[in-house]
Design goal:
Distance between the termini of chain C: 41 Å
Radius of gyration of chain C: 24 Å
Largest sheet of chain A: 3 strands, antiparallel
Chains: A alpha+beta, B alpha/beta, C alpha+beta
Largest interface: A-C, 32 and 42 residues
Oligomer: heterotrimer
Number of strands of chain C: 8
Order of helices and strands of chain A: HEHEEHEEH
Strand order of the largest sheet of chain C: 1-2-3
Radius of gyration of chain A: 29 Å
CATH architecture of the largest domain in chain A: 2-Layer Sandwich
Shape of chain C: globular
CATH architecture of chain C: Orthogonal Bundle
Chain lengths: 167, 206, 389
């Protein structure tokens, strides 16, 4: 409610009307300028796609060949969405290393990330000592059921997905 | 500064038992007797020297095992008070016996000093379970009005059924699949057994 | 109502006889799903025709147990949850939390990280105020400014996505520094933005702020004077809109704000009374200009060097407590962190300004029209994520 009462004189009455017209015209001129001067800023999505910046944090990917099963990502995760299972490699087995030279002592038996729980905070990728766990720029992966959001990175299909999406 | 305020409070409010708690790291605070909190707050606001005109927040902390040497379970209510004219701030503390759900600890409401206390005290009551005496509108604020328990108490357990709904049902819980854990445990056990066996064999050889 | 009450009694008396008409207040539930309440706020309004006689806010629909979560997760793991409090100014939420912990463990922050923090948070303030400008115009019935504001906000979000990797919930400011370094190209783009943006600000003021219809809707509406603000503990643009020169960046400088030169805009009551909706709007517009000033100084002064200070890998806070206040886009944010010396906090309490400002609604509401009440809710710029935590 207008608590501020000023006496309305005839002069003020016309002044108000003039102010209304003046400011409206001013605003309209800005919008009209936008119609002709400013290029469209929107894109037509499915046909035209934006290039996602390189550092964007989207779907997680674990390159299992470089994973040493150190469990640090699962510990760092604030929502506990990473499940790791591993067993020690037999002593007499062939010695293998990751791409940066860290020896792999345990054999990964399962590496699952529940993407429906993931909050994309990126804490897991920063603690990874071999940089096998990374965020990719793939962001279009809607699925029909919530069970499909669980990604098993030892699954050959997921590995194939990686080759397709990540250059 | 905290010492001065404690002295001032002791001189103005009889029985305030104000005591400055100097901390080595972090913020120091002033502890006062819980019965006199209303008078203490009024005195702090009215004094020309201090002019604490803004109540920032009220933060309750549950100590089921007591604070420091004293092992009696207490709830600490922290009043963050600031002066926007003198540009100072202070943490004012009261400690009350912890009580239980039926018998909540009682502290006088400071709504008459700062209106800000209204919602802050409601929040403190809702989450920590401190009853504020003479509060004008003593209801829960963040949780539903018929919720049971006070979540920020350390021994809080959520009720099982709320209005016919199961609270936190099992299929919504984030537990890694059962066989998953079993498998992991089995692998660990196997590894341990193998290591033990190897050690024993090494001993035998020696 | 009794069915016989209003029916004719057969004696020829008027069916709707004046003395028999009941007059009572009508209860209207505004929200929780109401576009004008900026989220899931429910306000129970008692109305006398179209005039609000009482308004009772009901909050808690977005309560996500932030404080309880914090007691179970280590200090670093809490950062993503801080983001989710005020999702429109997430950088500010992180900054307050990190500053509190850094003060407890006594870490020295590298100069470059300090500069980056200030640049990023001031950009975030602009982004948040831009959203306010656009959404407030929508609240009052103008759609076009919203699109212009989002166009500009998009530029900032794009920058944030490149710098931190996310558009809304960044987890960028870390305990001890910042996550990524800003590249020179990105700094150049920020500079470019700073140069082009003042023209846009003029545009908003001409299109929205000075418009006669907008002024009529906001001037003299929802007056929150200085005394009331102190009493309720209001801070930020609401307090400054009431003409009080109070800004934590000036009064209790944290980070490197001490070295920076900027003004604190306050409300003047230019279009109506001091502390009305228009003043709060105008203060936010001027704050964006001041933020630009700060960013420009930081861009000139930024130094080369490391971006992370020394922080132990397993973070443990010494026993004690701290209450840290920072100036966010919506007002003061205070973190009360109690540590028992362990890996997880003993208690984290967040004092949010939106919560405080929401508590002022019942005092302002009586006597307003419902449409004006919407204008008041919009002008205090609350984010329900921060109210409910």
């Amino acid at each position: 409610m207008n608590t501020h009462h000023e006496e309305l004189t005839l002069k003020k009455y016309f002044q108000n009307i003039w102010n209304g017209i003046r400011t409206t015209i001013k605003g309209l001129s800005i919008t009209i300028k936008h119609v002709y001067d400013v290029k469209p800023v929107t894109i037509e999505y499915p046909e035209v796609r934006e290039v996602i910046p390189e550092g964007s944090r989207s779907r997680l990917f674990n390159d299992v060949q470089n994973c040493i099963s150190c469990d640090q990502c699962a510990v760092a995760c604030p929502v506990d969405c990473i499940y790791i299972a591993s067993k020690p490699r037999p002593k007499d087995a062939e010695k293998i290393k990751t791409s940066n030279g860290t020896p792999i002592r345990r054999e990964l038996t399962q590496y699952t990330i529940d993407t429906s729980l993931c909050c994309y905070c990126g804490l897991c990728t920063t603690v990874c000592p071999t940089e096998s766990l990374t965020h990719t720029t793939d962001h279009e992966y809607a699925s029909y059921t919530i069970d499909h959001m669980k990604y098993d990175y030892l699954d050959p299909e997921v590995v194939a997905w990686r080759d397709r999406i990540v250059k | 500064m905290h010492k001065e305020i404690a002295d001032y409070l002791n001189s103005v409010v009889s029985g305030a038992e104000a005591k400055a708690l100097e901390a080595e790291v972090g913020d120091s605070s002033v502890l006062v007797a819980s019965e006199h909190i209303l008078k203490v707050c009024q005195a702090l606001k009215d004094s020309d020297e201090h002019q604490y005109n803004v109540l920032q927040t009220i933060s309750g902390v549950d100590y089921p095992e007591g604070v420091g040497e004293d092992k009696t379970p207490v709830i600490e209510v922290n009043y963050m008070i600031a002066s926007f004219t003198k540009n100072t701030e202070i943490i004012l503390k009261v400690r009350v016996p912890r009580g239980d759900d039926e018998n909540l600890p009682k502290v006088d409401s400071v709504c008459s000093v700062w209106t800000a206390a209204d919602w802050q005290e409601r929040e403190c009551y809702d989450l920590v379970g401190v009853e504020f005496v003479n509060h004008p509108d003593h209801r829960r604020i963040l949780n539903p009005y018929d919720w049971k328990g006070h979540p920020l108490r350390k021994d809080y357990k959520a009720q099982e059924v709320y209005q016919g709904m199961t609270v936190y049902p099992e299929d919504k819980q984030n537990i890694p699949e059962q066989d998953f854990i079993v498998e992991q445990n089995k692998l660990n056990d196997e590894a341990k057994a193998a290591a033990k066996k190897a050690r024993e064999e090494a001993k035998k050889d020696n | 109502m009794d069915s016989t009450e209003n029916s004719g009694n057969g004696n020829g008396q008027n069916k709707y006889g004046g003395e028999k008409l009941k007059s009572e207040l009508l209860t209207v539930n505004m929200g929780p799903q109401h576009p004008a309440t900026h989220g899931v706020l429910r306000v129970e309004i008692k109305t006398d025709s179209e005039v609000v006689s009482e308004a009772i806010p009901h909050i808690g629909y977005l309560h996500r147990c932030f404080e309880k979560h914090c007691e179970n997760i280590d200090y670093r793991g809490n950062l993503p949850f801080c983001d989710r409090m005020d999702y429109l100014a997430a950088m500010h939420m992180e900054l307050g939390y990190c500053l509190a912990i850094e003060k407890m463990i006594g870490t020295e922050i590298p100069r470059r990280a300090e500069y980056i923090r200030v640049i990023i948070t001031e950009l975030q303030r602009i982004a948040s105020h831009l959203l306010f400008t656009g959404v407030y115009a929508i609240d009052l019935g103008a759609f076009t400014p919203f699109l212009y504001c989002f166009d500009q906000r998009e530029k900032i979000l794009r920058l944030f996505e490149e710098i931190s990797g996310a558009r809304l919930l960044y987890n960028y400011i870390w305990i001890g520094g910042v996550w990524n370094d800003i590249k020179d190209g990105q700094l150049a783009r920020i500079k470019e933005f700073c140069e082009s943006f003042p023209a846009e600000l003029d545009k908003y003021m001409n299109l929205v702020g000075q418009n006669k219809i907008f002024v009529e809707r906001t001037a003299n509406i929802g007056i929150m004077n200085a005394e009331m603000c102190y009493n309720y503990g209001a801070t930020g643009p609401v307090l400054r809109g009431a003409g009080v020169d109070w800004d934590l960046r000036k009064k209790r400088p944290y980070s490197i704000y001490e070295e920076l030169d900027f003004d604190v805009p306050v409300g003047t009551g230019e279009k109506g009374t001091l502390g009305d909706c228009w003043d709060r709007f105008a203060v936010r517009q001027q704050e964006m200009r001041e933020s630009l000033k700060i960013i420009k100084q930081c861009l000139d002064g930024i130094e080369e060097g490391p971006i992370m200070g020394k922080v132990p890998k397993v973070l443990k806070l010494p026993k004690g407590e701290i209450y840290m206040r920072t100036e966010c886009a919506r007002g003061e944010l205070g973190y009360h962190i109690v540590s028992d010396g362990g890996k997880v906090p003993y208690r984290v309490k967040a004092k949010s300004s939106s919560f405080t400002h929401t508590s002022m609604l019942p005092e302002v509401a009586p006597g307003l029209l419902i449409a004006d009440f919407v204008a008041v809710i919009g002008s205090i710029d609350i984010v329900l994520g921060e109210v409910d935590r």
